[in-house]
Structure formats: structure tokens, C-alpha cells
Amino acid sequence: MSRSSPAERAFVLGFDGVPWRLIEQWSEEGELPNFARMREDGASGTLESTQPATTPLAWPSIATGVWPDKHGLYGFQNLSSGYSHEMYTSYDMQQPALWDLLSPAHVGNVPMTYPPQEIDGSMVTGMMTPSTDKEYTHPPELKADIESQIPDYTISLDYPEYADRLEEFEVAVNDMLENRRTVMNLQMAEAGDDWRLFFFVFTAPDRFQHLIWDMDRLLAHYKKLDEILGEVMDYTEEHDADLYVTSDHGFGPIEELVYVNHILEEEGYLFREEDDGTRGALASLGISRDRITDALERVGISEELIVSTLPRSLVDSVAEQIPGDHALYDVDYERTAAFVHGAGCLYINDTERFDSGVVEPRQVPALKAELTDLFESVTNDEGAPMLKVLDGDELFPTDDGSPDLIVNGHDVYEARNAITDEATGPTGTYAASHRKEGIVLCRGPSIEAGATLRGARVVDIAPTLLHGIGEPVPKNADGRVLFDAFDTETEPASTKVERTGVTQSDTDGSVDDDFTDVEDRLKGLGYME
Fold first, then answer.
1. How many whole angstroms from its chain centre is CA 245?
2. Is the pTM of this model over 0.90?
3. Phi, psi angle pair for 423, to nearest 5°
4. How far is 412 from 309, CA to CA, in rounded Å?
5. Distance between CA atoms of 200 and 373, rounded to whole angstroms?
6. Residue 223: CB partners within 8 Å, gap ≥ 6?
7. DSSP of 361-399, one letter per residue?
8. What is the DSSP letter of 499?
9. Does this UniProt record's set of keywords contain Hydrolase (predicted)?
10. Which long-range contacts (CB under 8 A, 24 or more apart) does 361-369 make?
């Protein structure tokens, strides 16, 4: 397949949450023939994710070539100085993505792309799209084409409904996978021969593995992924394109949940709102947030209806008055020194950043050191660590508004931020969760057959792809070009990386949508409390 000139096009095929060890094992055993072909004909290896290793950080890093402090997304929700939050959208992306640099481009089901952008090509938004009632495609008429072929097309599943019905869940995930495949084929037809970039993500493996971590059932699912890969391999061969198969992170089993905000409360760094005034009156009557929403749903008034009908500021204000265990609404910030929000993002409640901050900026470094020692001292009965802590300033050096620390579960432990009465608890319906190492496999006219990629990171995909098809790499990219991927006789292997300036993406847009369905889906996967 090799030649002197670079490939003309590139295709990124994303499989959310696929770990390298399963691909390595099953491709060597002959169970996944197309993954095996990718390894034989191209370059492959592990792909290091972001910290934390989560979807809303990692896919933007794959698409842009920069870490979160430059692309601007630290989770599913943006935390304000007033301790309120709103969903991140595509308007929050601060770094141009591959589809902003290459055209025509066709983008499908990539997380964090809602609302759709008016690119030269087509776009079908993925995770974080509120519902199919919204405009989720570009051009808009593509929506009608999708729904004519998939009348019951949905963005995602209502995961809590399947907590005790795993066989039905397996069928539902496979149906979702096939529907995404149909969408990909529609976009392929839309693209014709006139495209430079195709970027399509299948999130099904991540969703499946959160609830099911059984090797026989996983293999059956991965064989379906292998079929899709074979189809895309044929497509990229026909169009003289390099193919990059990536996952945003890996996966592994979990055995226990660790509630980090409880640890902060236990050690005097976090305080709950006291049940006085309105909260006290409601608490004395046995009224809690859960009891209220349950009662309303019994008479046909859902939380979704409340949020979609009332302004978010009013909903937040009322929620703060009702007793509960919410990591945002039930914290007394006027006494709290530190708290965790989102996927392990710990913030020092300092006076410059937050409206009710209590920690002076000069005290922040010492407090971070104290908290790092605290979390690293949390161990199981055998003395093994249950949490791992990383310094936000080291991870995100260009953004003063980044989290102060990242606190994640270690090995079989999963960190959560709900305020509870115990430091640990059972995993419930959750069988597995994210790991740091995903996959990268490359194949095409520019790629070296049988090459092994070492030390590849999510931010390396965009620079490597751009250089591989003869395009310049943004000057501020954090990633490097993976020269080990290229055939030594091809132009990309011997050509110096060309650099180009980038213009910051327009972030002036706003979205006033109801994201309740999105929040429910994220809660069902354990991503939110």
C-alpha cells in the first residue's frame, strides 16, 4: 500500500471505551479478523487518555490535538463562580477541530458536538444532544433522511430502565449500534468522493461495558465492532485514505465506590447546608428532594417538565431549599474549603474564583498539598491505595480556571462525588468503568505495516493525521506527530512538520435547551450524581 506521496484523505473511526488488552488478545486468537488485519497491515499500540480519562475531555483532545486547558472542556458541566452549572456544548470548544481545518468533512456521533456546526460537509451530533426533537444535523434535511430509514432513531438509551434487565439492555445496545451504522452509511453516501475527513464515533462499547463486564458477551459485541471496522477498511481503500481507529480511554472492572466529598466532609474541609429555615421545616416533615420528585412523577409531573418549564435559575434556587445529598445544592460554600464537582475535579473554594470563597489564594498551594496527602492515605484493608491524585496546575498549565486537583479511583475503585454518610459503597448496577489506556490502530497509503506505536497519547492523533495527508499542524498543538506510524519510503516519514497558526473557535453562541434527558442518561451511566 505504500507510496511516496501522502494519502489524500483520512478517516477517524472511534470506538468509545475500548481497551487495548482485549483487542490484542482477541485479534491474536483470530476472533477479530479485521482488527488483526489492521495490526498486520498498519501501526498499532496503546493510546493514553486525558486525566481524568473521560469522554468529554478525551474526544475533544483527539479532535484538536490539545489538552483540556486549551480546548476548554473539563467535563459534562461547566461550574460557575456562583456554584451553578450548565452543560458544555460545541460553543465551548476553544480550539479548532479537525473538521474546522479540513474540508469537505463528515462528522458523525462525536461527543460534545451539539449543536451542529455549519461545516463544509455533514454533521450528526452525538452524546450531549438533548433529543431528536432538536436540530441535530447539518444540513438540516439530513435529519429527515435519517428518520426515514430509522423511524425510532434515538441519541442514547435510558440506562436506569435496564438496571435489572441486562438481556434486554444487550439487545437495545446492539440495536443502537446498528442504527449508528446506518447513519454512517448515510453520511458515506452524502460524502460521495468529495471529502478530506471522515470522523465517526461508536459509543456503544462504553455503554455496554458499564453495565456488562462478561467476556463471552463482550466478545460477541466486539465481533460486531469488527464487522463495522471491515466495512470502513474497504471504504478507506476505495478512497485512498489513511484510517485511524481510536478509543478515548480503556475499560476495566470496578468493585467499590469511593465518595470523595464524604472524605472532605469527614475531615472538616466540606460542610453540608444545615437544615434550618425552609430546609429545616421541610426536613422536619420528612420532605426530601427525592420524595418530592417521586410524588410529582406519580401524578404525571416529571423533573424534565419542571426544568423545561421553569428558568434554570429558579429551579436551582428552589433545589437549594430542599434537603438532599446533592454535591452542588447541599454544600454550605460559606464554610467549605474544598469540594469535588464532576468526574473527580476538585476545586479549592478560594476567594478570587468563587463568590462565597473562604480560602485566600496564597493558602491554596498548602491546602492542595494537605488534600493530596489526605486522599493518598485512603487505603483498603490490605493497605493498597483507593484513590490517585494529580495536580491540576501541572495537567492544565495554560488555564487559571482549571480544577485544582484531579481525584480518581485507583484500579478497581471508582470515585464519586455524591454526599453520603459513608466513605465507600457498593457499585450497584455498575460492572466496570474507565481506564487510562485505549487503542490506536492506523492503516493506509502512508502507514508502515506491522509497526508498533509506543507512548501514543490522545493529543497525538490530530497532528499525525494532518501531517500524514500533507497538511500543516497547529502551532499550539500539545500532541506530536507519531513518525513511527509512517512507512519510511513515504513522504510523511521524511518531511519536516509544517506548522500553522490557529484562530480560536467562535464561542459566542449559547444554547438554551433542556438537557434533562442528557443528565438522566449520564446519571444512569454513573457519570453524574
1. 17
2. no
3. -75, -30
4. 41
5. 42
6. 31, 32
7. GGGHHHHHHHHHHHHHT-B-TTS-B-EEEEEHHHHSTT-
8. E
9. yes
10. 364/404, 367/337, 367/338, 368/404, 368/405
340 within 8 A of 263, measured Cβ to Cβ: no
Please give the domain boundaries of the chain with CATH numbers for all domains: 10-253+433-524 (3.40.720.10), 256-273+330-426 (no CATH), 279-323 (no CATH)
| Half-sphere CA count of 384, side-chain side, radius 13 A | 6
Q: What is the 3-state secondary structure (H, E, C) of 405-444?
A: EEEEECCCEEEECCCCCCCEECCCCCCEEEECEEEEEEEC
**First vs last C-alpha separation in the chain:** 49
- For the residues of 68-130, what is the DSSP string, one character each? HHHH---SSEEEPTTS-EEE--GGG--S--HHHHSSSEEEEEETT-PSPP--SEEEEE-TT--
Distance CA 446, CA 241 (A): 9
The C-alpha atoms of residue 422 and residue 263 are separated, in whole angstroms, by 9
Encode the chain (529 residues) as per-residue pLDDT tens digits: 444 567 889 999 999 999 999 999 999 999 999 999 999 999 999 999 999 999 999 999 999 999 999 999 998 888 999 998 888 899 999 999 999 999 999 999 999 999 999 999 999 999 888 888 889 999 999 999 999 999 999 888 877 788 789 999 999 999 999 999 999 999 999 899 989 999 999 999 999 999 999 999 999 999 999 999 999 999 999 999 999 999 999 999 999 999 999 999 999 999 999 865 454 444 445 544 455 555 555 555 544 455 444 455 555 555 544 444 555 578 999 999 999 998 899 999 999 999 999 999 999 999 999 999 999 999 999 999 999 999 999 999 999 999 999 999 999 999 999 999 999 999 998 999 999 999 999 999 999 999 999 999 999 999 999 999 999 999 999 999 999 999 999 999 999 999 999 876 554 555 556 545 545 544 444 444 5
